[in-house]
Write a structure and sequence with these properties.
globular; Rossmann fold; about 15% strand; 5 domains; alpha/beta; 6-stranded parallel beta sheet
Length: about 850
C-alpha cells in the first residue's frame, strides 16, 4: 500500500469498540483527503451510538460517506450491512465504489438479474431484493445495518412498499434513511422507534456544497441555451416530461452552434468505432456529433450509456432528457433547465411537486468541479410568444391589439413565475405510505416460511397490522388477503400439506422461478389450461415437451401462448399507436378502392384499434376468472400482438422499428420484448412449453442479444459470476460462488432454440445480401467474411426464399457434437423448392458464451473457396 492508496477499511480490527472504530474511520478518511462536513460527522456519531438516522441533506452533500461509516461499523462488529438503491445501475455503481474501499472479497451484489458474492458482509441490492430478505422467517432476528438510498421512493405508488416492508420486519436492524427530499419524517420515525426500540436521529441541512442560483426566464428555449453555453454554464440538462418533447427539442437545437470545431473533432474521435445497430442510431449520432445528447427511456440502453459516458467526459454541452435523470445517474451538470413546470402523471396533467422540482434541480453543480450551479425555469411558450409580440408592436408606448396565442387545450396546466418561486421555497410534501397485499407477496412468504401451521398467512396478517396505513386501510388489506388466499387455493397454486393439513404450501409442480408478482400471472395459468383443452379438441396433443420439431399446429399453439402472455403485460403505448396507424392506413386504402364516402370512412376509422388476437376469447376467460377471483379487476386484460407479429414474420428489430415508424421509442419496444421473453420463462409452466414455444423464446432471446448486447451481456455475465467495471473491463472480484457451467448452456432446450433463431436470422441476412446485417448476425473469420458470403449469394443463379420450410426439423438442424460444442446446419431453398445449398455454423461455449451472438460461421456450400476450417 502507498500513501495514495491507503489500506482498506477492513484493516480495522474486528470486534473493536465503537469509539476505536470511529477514530479508525476518521483517520482513514483523513488519509484520503476527506474533511467531514458537520452534518456528516453528526450522522456518523449517531450511527456509532446505535441510533437510526434520517439523513435529509442536499444532493452532493456527502451522504455516501455516511453510508460508508455504517458499513464500517457493521464490519467491526462482525455484522452484516446492506445498501439499497432504487435502480440496478445505482446499485452496480455503489458495488464498485465499495469494492475499492473495503476490498472485493467483502462486497457483494444482488439484483433481480444477477448475484455476485452474495454472501459477503456488505451487500448492494435493489430495494425489492431487501424486501424479499425482510420477508424471510428469521429477518426480525438479524442484527443488520441497512442504508436505504433515495428513501423518498417510500411514497412511490408502484414501488413504495419495498421501502416500507424492511422497516416493519427487520426489528433488530439499524437503519440509515437518506434522501435530499424527505419532507416531514415524524410519523415514520415514531413507528420505527416503536418497532425496534431504538431512537431515531434526524440530521438535516439545507446548505449545499455547491450553491444553486435560481432564475425564471421568459425567453425562447434556443436563445436560453445559446446564452448559457456562451456564458460558460454548460453542460446543461434540459428537462422534459415526455420522450417526444425531449427528442423534438434535441432536433430543434441543431440550429444552435453549441460546440467549437475542436470540440466537434473530439466528439468525432470519441464516437469512432461505436455501433449504431438500430434505425434511430443515425439520428442520435448526428446529434452527438453536434454536442447535443439525448437521454430517456425510449432510447436503447446502449445509447443511454453512451450519452452518460460522453457527458462524464465533458464532451456534451447540452443533454435533452426526462426527469428520470434525477435518480442517481452520475452525469455532471452545471445547469438544469426546466422546459415546463407541469407534467402528466398517468391520470392528470398537474404542476410538478416541490419534491420533484428539488430532485431535478439537485443535479446542477458538480462538487469538486463547480463553485456554482444554475437552475432555470422557462415560461410557457405561448406566454413567451405573446410577450415578444407585445414588445415588438408596442415599442412607441402605445397599446396594441393582436391575436394572442392561446395555451394548449390538452396536456397543460398553467404556471408562472410565482408558481416557480413557490416550488423553490417550499418544503417537500410528507411521504404517504404505500402497502398492497398481492398474490406474489403471499406466495413469496409461503415459499420462504418454515413448515409450521399456515406461517405465510400469519406473517402477512402481522405485516398488515404493522404497516403504516390507517386502520381503515389495514382492514381493506385484511379482506384482500382473504380473497387472494381463496383464489390461490381454487387454481391450485396453494394447497395443504398431506402430512399436516394445517400447513399451507405452494404447488410443488410450479417451476422454481414461477412469478406471481404480476397481477395477471394467475390469469395466464388459467388461460393456458383452457387453451390447452381447446387445442386438444382441434389438433390433438401438439404441446408435448420433447425433442420433436415444430409443425403447423404447434406453431399455432406457440402463437396463441404468445398472445395470452402478451395480454398480461403493460401496453407499449408508442408501438400500439404505430400499429393503429398501420391498420388505419390499410383500411382507408380499402375503403377508397370500394368507393366508400368520406364521412363513412372517417366513422369506420374511429373504430380501428391495434391487432388483438384471441381478444374475445380472452375477455370471456377474464369474466370467468374474475367471478371467482374478485381481487382481480374486470377488464384488466390487455390483448395485443407485438411479439406475436414479429415472431410470425421472423422480423428483425430493425425491420420492426422501420415498419412501425417507432424510431424515437425503439427502447420501449426493446424493453417490451424483453418483458415478453421473461414472462414466457417465468409464467408459462414447463408442461406448456412445446418445441414451437421454445422456438419463440429462442427467437426473442436472439433478437434481444443482437439488438442491444448490453442488456444481455451484463445480465449473463453477472449470473455467471463475473462482474464488469464501468469501463467494460472485467473487474478483479474474487467470486467463491462461481458456477461450473455458464448460463447459456444450463438449459439445452433454451440454447438449442437460441442457436436455431440465430441461424435463421443469419440466413435471412444472407439471402438479402446485407453485409452489415451479416456482420452483426454471427462471428466470422478472415477466411470467410460477410463480404465473401454476399459474393457467394450474388453468384448463385437460384432465387432463394425465406419461409416456414426453413424451420422444419430436416432443414434446420442443431445438435451437440462435442463437450460444449454445438453445430447448426441450415438448408436453403430456391423458389422451386430445391434445396442444394446450406450454411454451417458452430458454437463453442468456451469461446464466446457471453457474446451478443453465439454462432461462428464455418461453411457456406457450394464454393470451396469460401470454406473455412476455423
Amino acid at each position: 500500500m502507498t500513501n495514495a492508496d491507503p489500506a482498506p477499511l477492513l484493516m480495522a480490527p474486528a470486534g473493536a469498540g465503537d469509539d476505536d472504530a470511529f477514530m479508525a474511520l476518521v483517520d482513514w478518511l483523513a488519509g484520503r483527503g476527506f474533511a467531514l462536513y458537520p452534518h456528516q460527522e453528526e450522522a456518523m456519531l449517531e450511527l456509532f451510538s446505535g441510533r437510526h438516522v434520517v439523513l435529509a441533506t442536499p444532493t452532493g452533500s456527502g451522504k455516501s460517506l455516511v453510508a460508508l461509516a455504517l458499513h464500517f461499523r457493521a464490519l467491526c462488529r462482525g455484522e452484516r450491512t446492506v445498501y439499497t438503491a432504487p435502480i440496478k445501475a445505482l446499485a452496480n455503481e455503489k458495488f464498485f465504489e465499495l469494492c475499492k474501499a473495503f476490498g472485493p472479497e467483502n462486497v457483494g451484489l444482488l439484483t433481480g438479474d444477477a448475484s455476485v458474492n452474495k454472501g459477503a458482509p456488505i451487500l448492494c441490492c435493489t430495494a425489492e431484493i431487501l424486501m424479499q430478505m425482510a420477508l424471510e422467517a428469521d429477518a426480525a432476528r438479524r442484527p443488520w445495518h441497512v442504508a436505504m438510498d433515495e428513501f423518498h421512493y417510500y411514497a412511490d405508488r408502484d414501488r413504495g412498499m419495498a421501502w416500507q416492508v424492511p422497516l416493519l420486519r427487520m426489528e433488530a436492524a439499524t437503519f440509515l434513511l437518506m434522501s435530499a427530499t424527505l419532507g416531514d419524517m415524524t410519523d415514520i420515525a415514531r413507528e420505527l422507534t416503536a418497532r425496534t426500540g431504538k431512537a431515531v436521529a434526524h440530521v438535516t441541512t439545507s446548505a449545499r456544497p455547491v450553491p444553486l442560483e435560481y432564475s425564471y426566464l421568459e425567453q425562447p428555449l434556443h436563445e436560453v441555451v445559446d446564452g448559457l453555453v456562451k456564458a460558460g454554464k454548460a453542460p446543461c440538462y434540459l428537462v422534459h416530461f415526455s420522450h417526444r418533447d425531449a427528442s423534438e427539442t434535441a432536433g430543434a437545437l441543431m440550429s444552435v452552434d453549441v460546440c467549437s470545431k475542436d470540440e466537434k473533432r473530439s466528439l468525432a474521435e470519441a464516437l469512432r468505432g461505436e455501433r449504431w445497430p438500430s434505425p434511430y442510431g443515425k439520428t442520435l449520432q448526428r446529434l452527438l456529433r453536434h454536442g447535443i445528447g439525448l437521454h430517456h427511456a425510449g432510447l436503447l440502453p446502449r445509447y443511454r450509456r453512451l450519452v452518460e459516458r460522453l457527458a462524464q467526459a465533458g464532451l456534451l454541452k447540452v443533454v435533452c432528457g426526462t426527469d428520470t435523470l434525477g435518480i442517481g445517474i452520475n452525469v455532471p451538470l452545471k445547469t438544469v433547465v426546466l422546459t415546463r413546470l407541469c407534467k402528466y402523471d398517468g391520470a392528470n396533467t398537474r404542476i410538478v411537486q416541490v419534491r420533484e422540482l428539488h430532485q431535478i434541480a439537485g443535479r446542477a453543480g458538480r462538487k469538486g468541479f463547480d463553485d456554482q450551479g444554475w437552475v432555470v425555469a422557462l415560461a410557457p411558450e405561448h406566454v413567451v410568444a405573446n410577450k415578444r409580440m407585445e414588445n415588438k408592436l408596442g415599442r412607441d408606448g402605445r397599446k396594441v391589439n393582436f391575436v394572442r396565442q392561446k395555451p394548449p387545450e390538452k396536456g397543460y396546466a398553467h404556471w408562472d413565475e410565482a408558481t416557480f418561486w413557490r416550488l423553490v421555497r417550499g418544503q417537500p410534501e410528507t411521504l404517504q405510505p404505500v402497502f398492497q397485499v398481492t398474490a406474489g407477496l403471499l406466495a413469496q412468504v409461503l415459499r420462504g416460511s418454515p413448515s409450521d401451521a399456515a406461517p405465510g398467512f400469519r406473517t402477512v396478517v402481522d405485516l398488515i397490522g404493522r404497516c403504516h396505513l390507517s386502520e381503515g386501510g389495514k382492514l381493506g388489506q385484511r379482506r384482500e388477503l382473504g380473497r387472494i388466499g381463496r383464489s390461490l387455493f381454487r387454481v391450485g397454486v396453494l394447497g395443504r400439506d398431506r402430512d399436516d393439513p394445517r400447513t399451507v404450501r405452494l404447488n410443488a409442480e410450479l417451476q422454481e422461478d414461477f412469478s406471481l408478482h404480476h397481477a395477471l400471472s394467475l390469469f395466464l395459468v388459467y388461460c393456458l389450461e383452457k387453451l390447452d383443452l381447446t387445442h386438444l379438441e382441434q389438433f390433438g396433443d401438439v404441446r408435448r415437451e420433447d425433442d420433436r420439431e415444430p409443425d403447423p399446429t404447434d406453431d399455432l399453439w406457440a402463437a396463441d401462448v404468445l398472445s395470452a402472455t402478451e395480454a398480461i403485460l403493460d401496453n407499449p403505448v408508442p408501438v400500439l399507436a404505430a400499429q393503429v396507424r398501420e391498420e388505419k392506413g390499410k383500411l382507408v386504402n380499402e375503403l377508397k378502392a370500394q368507393g366508400v364516402p368520406y364521412e363513412e370512412r372517417m366513422e369506420r376509422l374511429e373504430a380501428v384499434t391495434w391487432p388483438k388476437p384471441l381478444a374475445d376469447w380472452l375477455y370471456a376467460r377474464l369474466d370467468e376468472f374474475t367471478a371467482q377471483h374478485p381481487w382481480l379487476e374486470a377488464g384488466a386484460v390487455r390483448p395485443k400482438a407485438v411479439a406475436r407479429v414479429l415472431y410470425e414474420q421472423w422480423a428483425t428489430f430493425d425491420e420492426a422499428v422501420r415498419d412501425w415508424g417507432v424510431e424515437p421509442a425503439e427502447g420501449v419496444l426493446l424493453r417490451y420484448l424483453s418483458d415478453t421473453y421473461k414472462a414466457l420463462l417465468q409464467n408459462v409452466p414447463g408442461r406448456w412449453r412445446s418445441p414451437a414455444v421454445w422456438q419463440a423464446i429462442g427467437y426473442l432471446r436472439a433478437l434481444l442479444a443482437a439488438t442491444d448486447s448490453s442488456l444481455v451481456e451484463e445480465w449473463e455475465s453477472m449470473r455467471d459470476g463475473r462482474a464488469f467495471s464501468e469501463s467494460g473491463a472485467e473487474a478483479s472480484v474474487p467470486l467463491p460462488e462461481r458456477r461450473a457451467t455458464v448460463h447459456v448452456v444450463r438449459d439445452p432446450k433454451a440454447l438449442k432454440a437460441r442457436l436455431r433463431a440465430e441461424m435463421l436470422q443469419l440466413c435471412k441476412a444472407l439471402l438479402a445480401a446485407d453485409v452489415d446485417a451479416l456482420a452483426d448476425a454471427a462471428h466470422w473469420s478472415s477466411e470467410l467474411t460477410p463480404e465473401d458470403a454476399v459474393a457467394w449469394r450474388k453468384a448463385q443463379g437460384a432465387v432463394f426464399v425465406f419461409d416456414h420450410r426453413m424451420r422444419l426439423a430436416d432443414h434446420c438442424q442443431v445438435r451437440q457434437v462435442g463437450a460444449g460444442i454445438w453445430e447448426a446446419v441450415q438448408t436453403l431453398f430456391d423458389c422451386n423448392g430445391a434445396s442444394e445449398s446450406r450454411v454451417v455454423a458452430a458454437f463453442d461455449a468456451s469461446a464466446n458464451c457471453n457474446a451478443a451472438v453465439l454462432l461462428h460461421v464455418r461453411e457456406i456450400d457450394h464454393d470451396p473457396h469460401l470454406r473455412s476450417d476455423a
